[in-house]
Design goal:
- It contains 21 helices and 22 strands.
- It is an alpha+beta fold and 744 residues long.
- Helix 11 packs antiparallel against helix 18.
- The longest helix is centred in the first third of the chain and has 31 residues.
């Protein structure tokens, strides 16, 4: 697009937004972010972000041990887990909040879901780490209130990050309005950053300090050394080294940038002040924690002890790229919960495309500004921050599983500035990117987060769309269900299931529900094992006499194989090790289990092709099905191989009969043996060209060893109608076979 069009579009977007709000953007964008953050805070319950319970465990430990930090050991079993090895600044800041509020009910609030699905976003349900008595609106008492206050204070750090990114962009291009908006949007409207900003995590403090350091560093590169700025940078770096080890990347880059600036400006004094203040502030603010690590663990950073607690591994960079890069990339833009909740696939594709465009645009930017010292220096410094930060993360993930995009949020200012530089070099208007990102970020909490944690809704009455039914397991009654019409299912299909439960009383112990898709042999193709509400509501919290609408999706595996009628098996058992509870039916009888038919399963790879040695034929029954081949086995079994030529509805079965004498139309006959067969899958579920086999095993009378022809026909079980062929009684006569009784 032309430069004029880009500038006009940018100006229109900027002027409209200014006119609506009347606020300058350095205040408007942090305010918009904070409002979005409140929505994310509401949508995501307290414990549903990665490692938040462990970060909270550190706060809880400090509060309960008079300010003492946790001491790590490889064999400990504490709530803080590996996070006890983290630098302590964030936890020390949050501990007073925990101390001021009543948290005696922590053990009651932290009621873990033993079936939680961690790290598998392709699996549906059980996304919640714990059970919440009141997910929405959230409970604001006791421990729950304390955690929400901590999360709110933590969220308050993020607008500072947003403001720092905006000011960093202005330091690079002070004459542009669109560039700062675009750069800030990559942080402010990143759903993952919003999500993490509302969690109990030291990532937020590190991201804020990292953005502030980036801002002051860029200003220093433009304006040169200034004593006040050097002191501020030194204080920020010292604080960040006490907040998260990712600060080490900034220590190295600020030092190198200072050396470069001193050489360029010939200002040795400025470098000495910067370096000296960095050392002094670090000694005063942060050195004690590193000295503690040396005394306790004989290492400066405590990473060996952290890995020992989390679990070490040995891998290679190529394996990381192949096995974990996709998850790392996605979790920078939006993977929620405990790595078990994705956004739309289109979102990841869009962000990948923008990143690729930005990388190409950076090349254009560098070529255009190859003779401009400041612009090149900015790109080098920002690139160095990202590169050193990524190198540290790669080093860490080579030793333990930690491929999470949020780990580079301390460098998000540098990342966003580089993305914006590349895209503006291609003359892409800021509003063309910022506005869709804002809209999507506003949608995410309602569509991709909150629905996974809410309880199943209660309804007043069974809706008209539901099929009334009756089955009762102890005090749990199934009064209705909604299912798709009977149909053919294939590998990869999803079966939506809605069940209506009417508990007669609140359970004293948790009962678990299972829903299985069974084939004709009773083998499960797939099973859901869960608590009600797909893991959100244990039966101990059910309200007696309420009606719960409980929805599930049964995912048939992509590699599932089979050819059979199928039905749902629904059952309950006492969790965790109790036996199945037998259902009582409406007539008062106790059943072994409860079934609901759903149609047939036909695996995509299923084929019933006649083996070698079978006798081929091509006899058409009616205009619907033909006999391709047949064979006789063991003296008592006939196998028939069929091909559907035209869709056929109804309960059609195959007659296979042997007469004592050759069949003559109109004459009396004696049936010697008969072995009818029902197709494994009713013909109504098969497609044109689908093949199937019917097997007919005869009960051969003792001492019968003679040749007899077998007559076969298709008949409708309900009407008695037969498919027409040009033979008497629409029966095909097969050659005579030698029968023999088979020992049982």
């Amino acid at each position: 697009m032309s430069g004029d069009f880009a500038r006009q579009t940018e100006a229109l977007f900027v002027n409209r937004l200014k006119g609506i709000t009347g606020l300058p953007f350095q205040w408007l964008l942090p305010l918009i972010f904070f409002c979005l953050g409140l929505i994310y805070l509401y949508a995501s319950p307290n414990f549903e972000s990665p490692d938040s319970i462990y970060h909270l465990g550190v706060i809880k430990w400090i509060a309960e041990h008079d300010g003492a930090l946790p001491v790590q050991s490889p064999d400990h079993n504490h709530l803080y887990e590996q996070e006890g090895s983290q630098p302590p600044l964030y936890y020390l800041l949050m501990t007073p909040i925990w101390l001021r509020l009543d948290t005696e009910d922590f053990d009651e609030v932290y009621y873990q879901n033993p079936m939680v699905n961690l790290g598998h976003p392709s699996k549906l349900g059980n996304r919640n780490l714990i059970f919440y008595k009141q997910p929405y609106p959230p409970n604001l008492t006791g421990t729950s209130l304390a955690i929400y206050v901590i999360r709110l204070v933590t969220l308050g750090m993020a607008p500072v990050t947003i403001a720092a990114v905006y000011q960093s962009a202005r330091a690079i291009r002070p004459d542009s309005v669109g560039f700062p908006i675009l750069a800030t949007s990559f942080v402010a409207f990143n759903p993952q950053f919003l999500f993490i900003s509302t969690s109990v995590s030291n990532d937020n403090l590190a991201a804020m300090l990292g953005a502030l350091i980036t801002w002051q560093l860029l200003v220093m590169l433009r304006e040169g050394f200034q004593t006040r700025r050097s002191l501020l940078l030194a204080a920020l770096i010292a604080l960040m080294t006490l907040a998260k080890l990712s600060a080490m990347a900034f220590v190295a880059i600020v030092a190198l940038a200072g050396i470069w600036l001193a050489l360029r400006k010939r200002d040795l004094r400025g470098l000495v002040i910067l370096g000296g203040s960095m050392l002094v502030f670090w000694l005063v603010i942060a050195s004690w924690w590193y000295w503690r690590n040396l005394m306790l663990y004989q290492e400066l950073f405590g990473t060996r002890m952290m890995i020992a607690n989390f679990g070490g591994r040995s891998t290679t960079i190529p394996r990381l790229l192949v096995e974990e890069f996709e998850g790392f990339r996605r979790s920078y833009w939006g993977v929620f919960g405990w790595f078990n909740n994705l956004t739309s696939e289109y979102h990841y594709v869009a962000m990948d495309a923008l990143t690729a465009l930005a990388v190409g645009g950076l090349v254009v930017y560098l070529l255009k500004n190859r003779k401009k010292s400041y612009e090149l220096t900015v790109c080098c410094v920002l690139g160095a921050i990202v590169s050193v930060g990524m190198a540290m993360i790669i080093w860490y993930t080579l030793q333990t599983t930690a491929s999470q995009g949020r780990l580079i949020f301390p460098y998000s200012a540098a990342i966003s500035l580089l993305l914006a530089l590349g895209l503006t070099a291609l003359r892409i208007p800021a509003g063309l990117i910022a506005l869709p990102m804002f809209v999507f970020a506003a949608i995410v909490p309602f569509v991709y987060i909150a629905p996974h944690y809410d309880h199943p809704p209660r309804v007043e009455n069974l809706p008209e769309t539901a099929v009334r039914t009756f089955a009762q397991w102890d005090d749990i009654r199934l009064i209705g269900h909604e299912l798709p019409d009977l149909q053919r299912w294939s590998a990869g299909d999803e079966i939506p299931i809605t069940l209506y439960w009417h508990p007669l009383a609140q359970s004293d112990a948790p009962h678990a529900l299972y829903i299985s898709l069974l084939n004709a042999r009773g083998k499960a193709i797939v099973t859901i094992d869960t608590f009600p509400g797909w893991g959100t509501l244990p039966t101990t919290w059910w309200k007696a006499d309420a009606i719960y609408r409980d929805e599930y999706i049964l995912q048939i595996p992509d590699n599932a194989k089979g050819f059979s009628i199928v039905q749902l098996q629904i059952g309950w058992y006492a969790f965790p090790n109790g036996s199945d509870i037998q259902p009582i039916l409406e007539n008062g009888a106790t059943a072994s289990t409860y079934f609901i038919p759903v149609g047939a399963f036909v695996g995509e790879s299923h084929s019933e092709i006649a083996p070698e040695g079978a006798t081929t034929t091509d006899t058409l029954f009616g205009d619907s099905i033909s006999l391709d081949a047949f064979r006789f086995l063991r003296g008592d079994t006939l196998e028939l191989y069929w091909r559907l030529r035209k869709p056929l509805s109804g309960d059609w079965r195959v007659l296979a009969i042997v007469f004592a004498e050759e069949f003559q139309l109109g004459q009396a006959f004696e049936v010697l043996m008969q072995a009818d067969s029902v197709p494994k899958v009713p013909l109504v579920y098969l497609d044109k060209g689908q093949t199937l086999r019917t097997t007919h095993t005869f009960e051969v009378p003792e001492n019968l060893e003679d040749e007899y022809p077998i007559y076969v026909a298709w008949y409708n079980f309900d009407t008695g109608e037969r498919l027409a062929i040009p033979y008497p009684e629409n029966m095909l006569e097969l050659p005579a076979f030698t029968f023999a009784s088979v020992p049982k």
